[in-house]
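Quick one, C-alpha cells below:
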C-alpha cells in the first residue's frame, strides 16, 4: 500500500510516455490519471493509519550505495508529515491531471504532457517519503528536471526556452547550497539518515568547524546552507526571479508547480529538518527576515502586473514568504497548515485562470479582458472564491492559517518577529488589493479586448469544471475542518515528525495578544479589497491623472520593473560570472595553464622528441660511426670515473653546503 502511492504515478508516466502513440491521446491521459488517482486512494488510507492512528511506517526497500565509508539505501519513511504532504500532492495532481484531459485535448502532444505530469508527481512523492537526505536530494533534482520539461513543453517558443533555462540555472544555484549542506552533514554526522542526524543534533550544539580557514558554528552553517537550497526551490528573495517566468508553460503546469509540488519542497525541507533548526538561532532569525521581505516585495510587484497568470504567480511567491518566516519563528505546524490550505485555493486560482485563457483564445493580459461576468459566470465564482480565500476573508480556508501566522509573529515579542508581523500585515493588504484588481479587470470592467477573442467565449467544460468545483469546496471548508487537528493546542497529530524546543514555542502566547491586533489583518484586507474596487470602478480618471505625476511614474516604474532585481541579478552577478567563466576559467586556466602544463604539453613533447629521434636516421655511414664513437667514449668514462662520482654522492649534503658558504665568504672578504 505504501509503495503503491509512490510507484503508481511512475507506472502511469511510463505507459503514457512510451505507449502514448499506440493508444490514442485520451487513452494515455486516462492511464496517467489512473496512476495518480490510485496514489490518492491509498494516500487516504495511509493518512488514517499513520496520521490519525499514530502508526508511522518505515520501509527499507533495497541497498543503493554501499562503499563501506558510506551506506545509502532506498528507504521510505511515512509519518504524519509525509502522509499530510502525500494527501496534498496526490489530490492536487489528480485534479490537475483530470483538468488537463480537457484543457490539453487540442494539443497533439498530450501523451507527452501527461507523462511529464505523472513523472513530476512521482519525484515529489520520492522527495517527501525519503528517509535520508541523499534520497531527498534525488527527488529534489527530479522535480527540477520535470519543471524544466514542463515549462519548456512548447519548446518552439523562444520565451518558453528562456524561462525553462532560467528556472534550471537559478535552481542550480540553490542546489549548490543544499549540496554543501549535505556534505557538511555527512562530515559531521557520518550519515545522511534522518533518525541518526536528528537524534544527535543536541550533542552538536555550539560545535564549530573550519570552512576556508574561517571558524563557523556547525549547526548554523548547516541550517543556512540548507536554507539556500530552500531559497532557490521555494523562490525566496534573490532566487525568486524564475517563478513568474515559469508561467510560459501550460496553465496546468503552473497549478501543479505553484500549488503542491516544486515550490513547497523548500518549505518541506525546513519543516523536516526542524530538529536541526531548533539549535540554530542565527539561521532562524535570517529565515524570518528573508521570508518577511519576500512576502512584501512579491506583493508590491503583484499590484502592478497585467498578465493574469503572473499576478497569481507573485501571490504564490508572497505566500511562500509567509510559510518561510513562520518556520523562522519555530512554528512549523502552522507553516505546514498554511502550505496545505494554500495548495487548494492557489490551484483553484490557476485552473480558473486557465479557464479564462481557454475561453478567450489564449489571451492573458487583464487589460484586454473585462465583461466576462455574463460569458463565464461559473469561472467568475471560482476565481472570486479563490481570491477571497487568498486574501484571508473571515471563515474561508486562508483566514485560519494566514491570521494565525501574523498573530504568532506579533506574539514572538522580538524585533525580528515584530518586523515580520507588520510586513506581513502590509503584504496581506496588498494581496487583497491586487486580487480584486484582477477580478475587476477580468470580469466586471467594460470589455477591452478584440471581438475575435470574445465572440466564442464559453464557460469551462465538465472535465475542467469539476476540479474547480472540488477545489472551491476545499477553499471554503478545509481550513475550518482541519485547524484543530493540525494546529490545535495539545494536538498529538504531528507526534515526533516536528520538533520544537519549549523555549521557542509561543502558540499559547498568541492566544493572549490584544484583540485589536488579531483583527488588524482582516480589517486591512477588507479595506484594501474595497479600495481596489472603488478606485478602478469609480475613480479610473483619477488614477490616469495620477499617472502623469512624476513621483508616481518613478514609483510605478520601480515596482513594475520588479525592484530592478532582475537587472541586479544580470548586471552584477550573471555578467561577472560569465566573464570569469569565459576569460579566466576557460581561456586562461583550462585552455591555458592546464593544457600547456598538462595534455597539450605532453603531446607536444612526445611529438617533438619523436621528430628529433627520427632525424637521426639519416642513412649516412659516417653519421652512424660518429654516434658509435660517442657511445664508446661514454662507456669508457662510466667505467673509469663512475666510482669517483659515486663517492661524491655518498658525502653528506651538509658538507656541500659548508663548502659553498666558505667559497662565498672567501670571495667577498
Amino acid at each position: 500500500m505504501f509503495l503503491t502511492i509512490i510507484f503508481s504515478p511512475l507506472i502511469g508516466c511510463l505507459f503514457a510516455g512510451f505507449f502514448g502513440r499506440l493508444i490514442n491521446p485520451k487513452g494515455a491521459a486516462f492511464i496517467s490519471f489512473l496512476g495518480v488517482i490510485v496514489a490518492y486512494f491509498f494516500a487516504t488510507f495511509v493518512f488514517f493509519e499513520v496520521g490519525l492512528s499514530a502508526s508511522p511506517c518505515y520501509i527499507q526497500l533495497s541497498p543503493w550505495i554501499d562503499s563501506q565509508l558510506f551506506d545509502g539505501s532506498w528507504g521510505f519513511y511515512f509519518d504524519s508529515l509525509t502522509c499530510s504532504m502525500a494527501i496534498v500532492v496526490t489530490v492536487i495532481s489528480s485534479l490537475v491531471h483530470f483538468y488537463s484531459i480537457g484543457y490539453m485535448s487540442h494539443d497533439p502532444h498530450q501523451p507527452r504532457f501527461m507523462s511529464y505530469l505523472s513523472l513530476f508527481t512521482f519525484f515529489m512523492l520520492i522527495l517527501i517519503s525519503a528517509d535520508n537526505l541523499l534520497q531527498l536530494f534525488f527527488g529534489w533534482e527530479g522535480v527540477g528536471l520535470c519543471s524544466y520539461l514542463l515549462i519548456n513543453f512548447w519548446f518552439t517558443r523562444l520565451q518558453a526556452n528562456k524561462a525553462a533555462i532560467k528556472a534550471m540555472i537559478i535552481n542550480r544555484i540553490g542546489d549548490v547550497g543544499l549540496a554543501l549542506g549535505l556534505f557538511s552533514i555527512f562530515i559531521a554526522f557520518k550519515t545522511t539518515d534522518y533518525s541518526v542526524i536528528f537524534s544527535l543534533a543536541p550533542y552538536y550544539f555550539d560545535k564549530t568547524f573550519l570552512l576556508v580557514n574561517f571558524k563557523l558554528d556547525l549547526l548554523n552553517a548547516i541550517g543556512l546552507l540548507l536554507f539556500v537550497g530552500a531559497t532557490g526551490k521555494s523562490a525566496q528573495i534573490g532566487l525568486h526571479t524564475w517563478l513568474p517566468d515559469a508561467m510560459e508553460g501550460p496553465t496546468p503546469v503552473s497549478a501543479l508547480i505553484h500549488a503542491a509540488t516544486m515550490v513547497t519542497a523548500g518549505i518541506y525541507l525546513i519543516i523536516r529538518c526542524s530538529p536541526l533548526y531548533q539549535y540554530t538561532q542565527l539561521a532562524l532569525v535570517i529565515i524570518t527576515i528573508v521570508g518577511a521581505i519576500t512576502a512584501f516585495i512579491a506583493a508590491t510587484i503583484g499590484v502592478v502586473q497585467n498578465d493574469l497568470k503572473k499576478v497569481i504567480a507573485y501571490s504564490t511567491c508572497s505566500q511562500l514568504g509567509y510559510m518561510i518566516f513562520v518556520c523562522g519563528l519555530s512554528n512549523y505546524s502552522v507553516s505546514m497548515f498554511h502550505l496545505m490550505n494554500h495548495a487548494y485555493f492557489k490551484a483553484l486560482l490557476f485552473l480558473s485562470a486557465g479557464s479564462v485563457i481557454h475561453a478567450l483564445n489564449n489571451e492573458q493580459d487583464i487589460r484586454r479582458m473585462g465583461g466576462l461576468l455574463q460569458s463565464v459566470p461559473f469561472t467568475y465564482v471560482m476565481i472570486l472564491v479563490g481570491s477571497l480565500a487568498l486574501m484571508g476573508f473571515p471563515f474561508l480556508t486562508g483566514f485560519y492559517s494566514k491570521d494565525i501566522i501574523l498573530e504568532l509573529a506579533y506574539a514572538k515579542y522580538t524585533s525580528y518577529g515584530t518586523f515580520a508581523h507588520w510586513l506581513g500585515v502590509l503584504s496581506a493588504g496588498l494581496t487583497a488589493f491586487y486580487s480584486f484588481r484582477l477580478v475587476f479587470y477580468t470580469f466586471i470592467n467594460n470589455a477591452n479586448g478584440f471581438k475575435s477573442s470574445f465572440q466564442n467565449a464559453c464557460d469551462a467544460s465538465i472535465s475542467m469544471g469539476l476540479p474547480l468545483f472540488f477545489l472551491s469546496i476545499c477553499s471554503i471548508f478545509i481550513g475550518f475542518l482541519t485547524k484543530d487537528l493540525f494546529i490545535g493546542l495539545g494536538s498529538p497529530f504531528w507526534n515526533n515528525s516536528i520538533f520544537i524546543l519549549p523555549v521557542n514555542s509561543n502558540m499559547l502566547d498568541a492566544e493572549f495578544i490584544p484583540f485589536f491586533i488579531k483583527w488588524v489583518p482582516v480589517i486591512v484586507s477588507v479595506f484594501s479589497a474595497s479600495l481596489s474596487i472603488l478606485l478602478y470602478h469609480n475613480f479610473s480618471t483619477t488614477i490616469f491623472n495620477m499617472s502623469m505625476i512624476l513621483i508616481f511614474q518613478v514609483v510605478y516604474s520601480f515596482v513594475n520593473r520588479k525592484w530592478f532585481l532582475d537587472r541586479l541579478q544580470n548586471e552584477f552577478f550573471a555578467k561577472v560570472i560569465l566573464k570569469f567563466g569565459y576569460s579566466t576559467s576557460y581561456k586562461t586556466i583550462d585552455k591555458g595553464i592546464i593544457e600547456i602544463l598538462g595534455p597539450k604539453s605532453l603531446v607536444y613533447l612526445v611529438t617533438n622528441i619523436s621528430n628529433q629521434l627520427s632525424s637521426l636516421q639519416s642513412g649516412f655511414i659516417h653519421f652512424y660511426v660518429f654516434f658509435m664513437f660517442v657511445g664508446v667514449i661514454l662507456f669508457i668514462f662510466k667505467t673509469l670515473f663512475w666510482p669517483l662520482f659515486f663517492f661524491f654522492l655518498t658525502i653528506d649534503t651538509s658538507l656541500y653546503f659548508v663548502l659553498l658558504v666558505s667559497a662565498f665568504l672567501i670571495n667577498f672578504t
